[in-house]
Amino acid sequence: MARTKPGFMGSRKNSRTGCMKSVRTEEEEDIDEEESEEEEDAEEEYKEEEGDGVERVEDPRWVKIKDRYKRTIDKECGFERLEVSRWKREENWGKKMWKEVTNSSPPKLIGEGVYGIGPVLAAISVGRRDFYTLYVQEGLDISSSNKKNKDKKGIEKVLKIAERISLTVKEASKHDLNMIVDNRPHQGLVLDASPLEMVGTREMEPVSINGNNGVFWVALDEVTDPQNLGAIIRSAYFFGAAGVVLCAKNSAPLSGVVSKASAGSLEIIELRSCKNMMQFLTSSVENGWRVLGGSLSKNAVPLNEVEAGEPTILVLGSEGKGLRPLVERSCTQLIRIGGNIHSGVFNDEDEGDGGVTMEQACGERMDQGGYTKELQSFLAVESLNVSVAAGVLMYHLTANSSQALVSDQKV
């Protein structure tokens, strides 16, 4: 083969085809040899770095990408560009999340999940459930040096009680715990426990002459929202209710959601269930109990006119429809909470009965520079949320009962 000048390509004519064939120079062959040697050195360096515990991408092209990445860093001052540091953080986060998702295997619960520090602590302290396993988030720092973790005292109490009762404790990733509780706030604790059982009842015990003053129960007629149910149970426990009675049907199940919404009060307060709410209330009235039903009816008595000191059952209805008609008839008295709007129900049929129509109420507000016609449809919110109404009613009953008790002591 005839040699050519450096930097130029030689050519040779093929005797058979008559075409020109390119000939590589010795300089180009030397360059190829150098590049192949560099690639071999890079591969050896890549193999040496595999033993440092860092997850590598099994692709030789990664060496070139890493070399190009190193060029963006100023080696003299050690300064890293903002774009590079941001890309590095996102890459590390993506690798971590991908590893958690691919290696994720959420544990299967035997019973139901009770999550949150308050509910778990209350459940294992009272012991009304059967416990199977306590799952703790791995990497949870509860050491004394960690001052940022405000829940560490509660977690320490849970772990001490779990050790005392010989409860199995297992660590699980945060992703697995999120999968168990459907991404609800678990605070690093999930307890696998049996469902909470209620005691069936048909009526309340007969009232004694001197033993039931100021006692009240809360009866819930088909409250189906677990958040509202948990909030009502929490208020009932706070205001000192003796217990809560639920309908056996058409009520929210006593799940971990209810326990979390009640801040653990569900695990402590006495719970009963009845198959027929009307029969339960009627029989309780015969045994000397006063039954107060929260209602928006025009026959309802204002809350400030309710006398205190009698054994009482406070009945509350569902979120949308309120008390059922037969349940209202079973109450000895209907009560209502007075608000800042007109007490009459906004209905044209009640106009002749002393009620106030929507147009009249909006007209008065418009005269005061308030609402416009476009907002009339939103003024139908004439009642409180059932959990809020329960808190107001229970506070009034307990406050009046304490005042009545003080007056009786003075006499």
TrEMBL record:
<keyword id="KW-0496">Mitochondrion</keyword>
<dbReference type="InterPro" id="IPR001537">
    <property type="entry name" value="SpoU_MeTrfase"/>
</dbReference>
<dbReference type="InterPro" id="IPR029028">
    <property type="entry name" value="Alpha/beta_knot_MTases"/>
</dbReference>
<dbReference type="GO" id="GO:0016435">
    <property type="term" value="F:rRNA (guanine) methyltransferase activity"/>
</dbReference>
<dbReference type="Pfam" id="PF08032">
    <property type="entry name" value="SpoU_sub_bind"/>
</dbReference>
<feature type="domain" description="RNA 2-O ribose methyltransferase substrate binding">
    <location>
        <begin position="113"/>
        <end position="199"/>
    </location>
</feature>
<keyword id="KW-0489">Methyltransferase</keyword>
<keyword id="KW-0698">rRNA processing</keyword>
<feature type="compositionally biased region" description="Acidic residues">
    <location>
        <begin position="26"/>
        <end position="52"/>
    </location>
</feature>
<dbReference type="GO" id="GO:0005739">
    <property type="term" value="C:mitochondrion"/>
</dbReference>
<dbReference type="InterPro" id="IPR004441">
    <property type="entry name" value="rRNA_MeTrfase_TrmH"/>
</dbReference>
<dbReference type="InterPro" id="IPR047261">
    <property type="entry name" value="MRM1_MeTrfase_dom"/>
</dbReference>
<dbReference type="InterPro" id="IPR047182">
    <property type="entry name" value="MRM1"/>
</dbReference>
<dbReference type="InterPro" id="IPR029064">
    <property type="entry name" value="Ribosomal_eL30-like_sf"/>
</dbReference>
<dbReference type="GO" id="GO:0000154">
    <property type="term" value="P:rRNA modification"/>
</dbReference>
<dbReference type="Pfam" id="PF00588">
    <property type="entry name" value="SpoU_methylase"/>
</dbReference>
<keyword id="KW-0808">Transferase</keyword>
<keyword id="KW-0949">S-adenosyl-L-methionine</keyword>
<dbReference type="InterPro" id="IPR029026">
    <property type="entry name" value="tRNA_m1G_MTases_N"/>
</dbReference>
<keyword id="KW-0809">Transit peptide</keyword>
<protein>
    <recommendedName>
        <fullName>rRNA methyltransferase 1, mitochondrial</fullName>
    </recommendedName>
</protein>
<comment type="similarity">
    <text>Belongs to the class IV-like SAM-binding methyltransferase superfamily. RNA methyltransferase TrmH family.</text>
</comment>
<feature type="region of interest" description="Disordered">
    <location>
        <begin position="1"/>
        <end position="55"/>
    </location>
</feature>
<dbReference type="GO" id="GO:0003729">
    <property type="term" value="F:mRNA binding"/>
</dbReference>
<dbReference type="InterPro" id="IPR013123">
    <property type="entry name" value="SpoU_subst-bd"/>
</dbReference>
